Amino acid sequence: MSLPRLSSINPAFHHGEIALQKKLGIDKEIGERTKGFIRSYMPEQHRLFFTSSPFTVLALVNDEGYPVAVPVWGEGDFIESPSPTQLRFSLPVQVWNMMLGALNLDVISGSKIGIVGIEYATRRRNRLNGTINHATKGNLTVLVDQSFGNCPQYIHKRNTTKRRRLATGLQPESNASYNVNMATTTTKVIDTRARTIIENAETFFIASRHSSLGQEANEGLDVSHRGGKAGFVNVKGNTITFPDFSGNKFFNTLGNILLDPRVGLCFWDNETGDLFFVKAKAKVEPIESKASVFKETEFEGAERFVSLSVMSVTHIAGIYPYSHEITDMSPYALQTGDWK
After folding, report:
1. Residue 92, number of CB atoms within 10 A of its CB
2. What is the pTM of this model?
3. What distance in Å separates the CA atoms of residue 254 and residue 120, rounded to the nearest whole number?
4. Quick one: DSSP state of residue 38?
5. For the range 108-113, what are the long-range contacts, defined as Cβ-Cβ under 8 Å and sequence gap of 24 or more?
6. What angle do CA 127, 133, 136 make, to 5 degrees?
7. Could you report the per-residue pLDDT of 54-95, keeping only the tens digit for each?
8. How many Cβ atoms sit within 10 Å of the Cβ of residue 183?
9. What whole-number distance in Å separates Cα of residue 127 and Cα of residue 220?
10. Distance between CA atoms of 151 and 131, rounded to whole angstroms?
C-alpha cells in the first residue's frame, strides 16, 4: 500500500492513519469531521474528567523501544491540570517503581506519552497524546500535543472498587526471570496463567507508536481501549488474534501498526490485582484474508483482524488496587459473534 505524503493530509493524522482511511474512501470525510475536534489543548470538561479519575492508562516506550500500556493510580487528587495544556501526575512509589523498575520504561523529559482515561460507570473515554516536560520521583508533567474524545461503543459499564491486595510471591516457570521485590515474572511464552486471563478478557489496553516518535503532534504514542465479549481474544501458541470492529475510523492504533509493528498490551485480573504486560509485533490482517489465514477462526462483526506475535509476557502479582466488575455489557459488543 502506498502512503500519501504527510504534507497533503489533515495534520491531526499521520500517513499511516490516513492510508487506512483512504483505503475505505473516508479520508476527506474524517478530515472534515475532525476539524476542531482534535485539539492542541484540553477543553474544560476533559480537564475535569482526568483530574477526577482514580486511575488512568499511559503509553510509554521501554528501553527496547516497545510501547507499553501501563495503568497508573494514586491517592486523592493525584492528577492535576494547572492549565489547558498540562496534566500533572503525583504517583506513589509503588507505581513509579513498577514503571521504571519492573517495566523499564522511558520516563524522561522530552519523551512522548499517550494517555487514555475511562469512566466505566458512564462509559466516557477521553484521549491525550503529549510530551513529558518533567519527570522525577513520581512527579510527572505532560504537555498536550493532541486532545480528543472517543466513542463509548465497546466500553462495558463497570463499578470500580478499591481492594486491599496482597502482592504474594510467584513461583516462576522455566525460562522466566524473577524479581522478588515486586513479585514479577517475565516469560518468552504465554504460560497457562496468562493464557487463562487473556482468553477470558472482556477488555484490554493496547499501546502503539509512530515509527519515529518525531516532533510533530501526530508522531507520538497512543494507547487505546479494546472491548468485546469474554473470549473475543484468541490465543494459539504464542500468537494472539483479536477482531477489529467498526469504530470512529481514526485508526490511531492500526495506523501506528502500519508504520511500526511494535505494540504492548495490558490485561488485569479483577480478583487478584495481577497485571499482565504483553510485548508483541502486530500485523493488520484484512478481512478478505480470512479464507486462508483465518479459515477456522472467522469472527462475526469483524472488519479486520490484528494478529500479534508475542515476544514476552511480564506478570506483576497483586499490584493493581482496583476491581472493575461489569454491571452492564456494551450493547455493541453483544452484537458481535464468536470465534468458530
Report:
1. 15
2. 0.88
3. 24
4. S
5. 108/132, 108/135, 109/133, 109/134, 109/135, 111/60, 111/61, 111/135, 112/61, 112/145, 112/209, 112/213, 112/219, 112/220, 112/221, 113/58, 113/59, 113/60, 113/142, 113/220, 113/221
6. 110
7. 999 999 999 999 999 999 999 889 999 999 999 999 999 999
8. 19
9. 13
10. 24
